[in-house]
Design a protein that fits this description.
By secondary structure, the chain is mostly beta strands. The chain has no helices and 5 strands. It is about 0% helix and about 30% strand.
Amino acid sequence: MSRFDDILELRGRVQRSSRSTATGGGQSLRHRPWVAIRWRCCGAYSRIYRNREGTAYAGRCPRCTRPVQLRIGAEGTNARFFEAE
């Protein structure tokens, strides 16, 4: 048995939200910049998204809701994957 037996691939059409940014609606998360986080507290992985002000990436652990915030600065990094304790 392969170690990838639990992968499920779904193919289908992507539907747009009824709220459009062109009409003043909210911006979809699909188009917002994100970084990946490995949550050491619970052994989970998730994405966290850049805030609307563009000053930080912020999110919470999907299991225990512990918060994390990564500030954006000129001396920053190009890394896209991080660990949070």
